[in-house]
Amino acid sequence: MSGSVRWGVLATGGIAATFTEDLRAMPDAEVVAVASRTDASAQAFAQRFGIPRAYGSWAALAADDEVDVVYVATPHSAHREAAALCLEAGKHVLCEKAFTLNAREADELVKLARDRGLFLMEAMWTYCNPVIRRMTELVRDGAIGDIRTVQADFGFAGDFGPEHRLRDPALGGGALLDLGVYPVSFAQLLLGEPDRVQADALLSPEGVDLNTAMLLSWSQAGASALLNCSIVGDTPVTAAITGTKGRIDFPHGFFYPERFVLHRPGKEPEEFTAGAAGGGLRGMQFEQAEVARALRAGETESPLVPLDGSLAVMRTLDAVRDRIGVRYPADGLG
Fold first, then answer.
1. Nearest to residue 331, comparing CAs of 172, 112, 198?
2. Which is deepest, 53, 270, 293, 325, by most CB within 10 Å?
3. DSSP letters of 193-258?
4. pLDDT of residue 334
């Protein structure tokens, strides 16, 4: 692929708007089309961002020959349907997180993309952040020795009524898929898929998790991760990695960090910034740049956000839900 990367945006909610705002600042990229389930929503979004074509159906966007790659920004309950529609139409896809509702759906998408030779990536922007990439380099190079513990949390307090999507099992409601995916992905970026998963949760009357604590273990590595997510309490939203030779601390907002601090015995703390988002952007430009790089290189998977890693995270999320007793209607299909 040469020239400008032509994006289509599927869905018109808040995350789609943020993504589009960042994308408009990217060189050699343009949003050429947007789709929603209704013409009115698509037209309003197109007018807001100066997008030339607006569609009242997902299929119309998937059939647009001038779209190179589609950003799927629906709630995760629709990720499989929307992403599969685009892949079957020959479009490359960047799909929001959590990747799907469960590992079975994720596996179906990955197999479809690989069979068609198309690019597919979970929009785990954290992995593409330069601060996170610098941290992983330091850990890989032994800056803190062997990892022993990872701690991470993501929670906020919201007044969500029973009608809200975060309380609806059919929409993948609860804290885990919206927020818990970040701590789990953070831990697995460092340690891979755990061999033991323990969890406990406070459930809503509808049967989704309001507050979930997770303990993941890697027996061969001698490591564990203590993780938490919540939609009923404001947590620090921090992360820490402790090794045999030091510790790395991330302040509030660890999933889109601007800095971290390296602590080692006998040395002054070292702060690393590695290039924050800046410029009024929200940080999504890093994943956008990775998609563009991969497409121009003819790659169908990103080494920063590998599909096997996304599948492993979904398996862990499934295991957590099994432990806490959360099921979605989609789990019984197939």
1. 172
2. 53
3. S-SEEEEEEEE-TTS-EEEEEEEEEETTTTEEEEEEEESBS-----EEEEETTEEEEE-S-TTS-S
4. 42
CA distances from 261 to 91, 168, 223, 272 (A): 41, 39, 21, 6
Q: Which two tokens stand for residue 225?
A: 């991760």
267 is catalytic: no
Q: What gap in Å lies between CA 121 and CA 289, rounded to an integer?
A: 13
Q: How far apart are CA 107 and CA 96, in angstroms?
A: 15
Distance in angstroms (rounded) separating the CA atoms of residues 146 and 222: 9
Do 151 and 333 form a contact (C-beta atoms < 8 A)? no
**What is the rounded CA–CA span in Å between residue 120 and residue 293?**
13
Both tokens of residue 65? Answer: 């020959």
Rounded to whole angstroms, how far apart are CA atoms 133 and 76? Answer: 26
Looking at the chain, list the stretches that DSSP marks H as alpha helix, in order from N- to C-terminal side.
14-23, 39-49, 58-62, 79-88, 103-116, 125-128, 130-140, 175, 181-191, 285-297, 307-324
Q: What is the pLDDT of residues 243-279, one digit of tens each?
A: 999 999 999 999 999 999 999 999 999 999 965 544 5
Structure confidence by residue, pLDDT tens digits, 182-200: 999 999 999 999 999 999 9
Q: From CA 160, how far away is CA 86, in angstroms rounded?
A: 32
pLDDT 10s digits, 127-166: 999 999 999 999 999 999 999 999 999 999 988 888 888 8
Residues pairing with 150 in the sheet? 225, 241
Whether the predicted pLDDT of 281 surpasses 80: no
Q: Does residue 292 have a cis bond before it (omega within 30 degrees)?
A: no
Q: Which residues pair with residue 225 across a beta bridge?
A: 150, 216
* Count of CB atoms situated within 10 Å of the CB of 239: 27
Please name the residue ranges forming H helices in 147-302.
175, 181-191, 285-297
Tokens representing 142 are: 């032994």
- Please report the sign of the dihedral spanned by the C-alpha atoms of residue 105, residue 110, residue 115, residue 119: positive
Helix (H, G, I), strand (E, B) or coil at 77: helix
Q: Which of 97, 111, 245, 267 is catalytic?
A: 97
**Is the four-CA dihedral 30, 36, 39, 45 of positive or negative sign?**
negative
